[in-house]
Structures are given as structure tokens and as C-alpha cells.
Amino acid sequence: MSPCYSVIIPVYNAEKTLCRCVDSLLPQLRDQDELILINDGSRDGSGAICAEYAGRDARVHFIDQKNGGVSSARNAGLDAARGDYVLFMDSDDWVSGDLLSAASALLAESDWDWIRFSICPEGKESPAQPPTLHAFRTRKELFPRIIDEICNKTINSPCAKIYRRDILEREGIRFPLGASVAEDRALNIRYSMFVNSYLTSDQIVYYVNTENEDSLSRKQHADLSAQFEITGEFVRQAIAGAVLPESEKKLYRRAYNFGVCRGIYKDAKDLRREGLSWAKRQRALWKACGEINRKHMRYPKTKYCRAITLPVRLRQTWMIDLIAGRLLH
Q1: Domain range annotation of the chain
Q2: pLDDT digits over 273-293, tens only?
């Protein structure tokens, strides 16, 4: 029997892009599938668009709530979901016409706990190639891959991923409330602790639009440090409470710490984009390095991790700034 899908889309001020997003998905949905739209207190016409879709298509369910942030919106979708598998989309983005057929073909071969497809930024589409699959059928096989994805941040987005709803429900997995930054990374790390099979595909099925800076997943936040503390505590508690070998817990902690340290390079890129002078960038990076180093974090013992963390440990802010400049080109 073919699996049923619940697709969850949080919506915030997305009237310009929402129709493209929904229309890219609806033709793929069967009668047993569902699309859940959560309007998170939009100030534009997004709520009316959601209501219109729900009014004319029984497969579309509409939840209207006060603004609570992307975690609250996605959690409301999870609470309402009834499918065998869950997918997330952002209201700015869209999917290829073969997303669900590709997922069903893979699930027909094996009952995977987690599937990850590839994401493509708008305007950077590449010629179609036969997809390369990497299958991990045991915890022993997949765990090194999970740690690598935490370090490289490919684990972050919940989009273009297929989740088993029974795992989400059995373990009570939800996004950390109060966080709209790195909340997706936090949920994925926790979900990965209960996964015993994992399949990755480089088939591009999801396209990202980065134009709407007011969307739930891309809004700028004035309280970034507080947001990161929420997600950091969420991950720390998840690791501490997980029924895992201590060796795995240690690697989870080190990989998460590395992700935090690696984030300073994104900060450095943002400082350059803001047009700050070299001196101001150096002062900001010096302070950020100090805050990271005071936590005495340990990292995975790989050449890649050492190359990234060493400039932070030594407060080589000029090197961090130089690397950020090259990443912008």
C-alpha cells in the first residue's frame, strides 16, 4: 500500500509567493494525502489565500493562529497531521512535480526512517542527472554520516526531507518553542537520535526563494543570542536524555559545538554585507571569538574541523574575515 503524506507549510506574510508554493504541490497530492497550511498571524492577505485553498480542496486543511513564530506554526501542523510521512515546505519556496512520486518509489524499496533530497537556490538550476543515492541501513552505518551532516550543516533545513510520523509521535518530537533561529537544526538533531535507516539522494526536488526577508524562516531577529540559547539548551537536553551509547552522545556534543563555532564565518559574511569597516568587523569578530572560547567547547578530531576552529581559538579575526570574503564570491 502506498504511504500517505502530510505536507506542512507555515505561512507568514507570503501572499506574493504562496500560490506558487501550493500550486507546485497540489497536483501531486492524492485523495489520501493532505496539505496543512498554518497562517501564523500574517499582516497581509495570506490568511485569505489559505482559506480559499481549503474551501475548494478537501485535501487542504487551514489553521489560523496568532503569531507565535515558525516553531509554533510547524508544531501546530504536526499536531494536526495524520499521514504516514511528514514533509515541510516554506511558503516562499516550491517543489518539482516529481517530489512525492520520487519519495514513494524510494519507500517502496524500503521503509526508510528518514530520506533527504537536495535543495536548489532559485536561479541556480543544473541539468538533470540520474540521482546518486547513499543508503545507510543500520545505526552503525548512518551515525558517522549524521555527525558529518551536523558539522557541515546539511542537516539543518527540514525541507526536502521525509520524516516518519510514528517516530515523531512516539518520541514526542517537536520544534523548540520560542525559537525561530536554528530551530530546524535542533529538531533534526533530535530526530536523528531515533533513526535506524537513512537514505540521501542528490535529486533536486525543492527550490528555495530568498527574496522574502519577512518570511517566518528568514526574518531577522534582534535577540539572536537568546534564540540560540533556546535551541542550544534544547539540543543539550535531547542528548542528555537520549538512550544512546555514551560514545555517540560525546560525538553529538562535539559536532553540535563545531556547528556553533562554524557559525562565526556566517556572521563574518553578514558583517561584510552590512558594509562595516575592516576595524569594526575585527572588533565584532574578536568579541565573538572570545564568547565561543569561554565555553571551552570540544570539537570532532578531524582535519576539516581543526582548520575551521583554529582561527577561532587563536582569535585570528583577520583570517576569519578573509575566508568570509572569499565565501561571498
Answers
A1: 5-208, 259-327
A2: 899 999 999 999 999 999 999
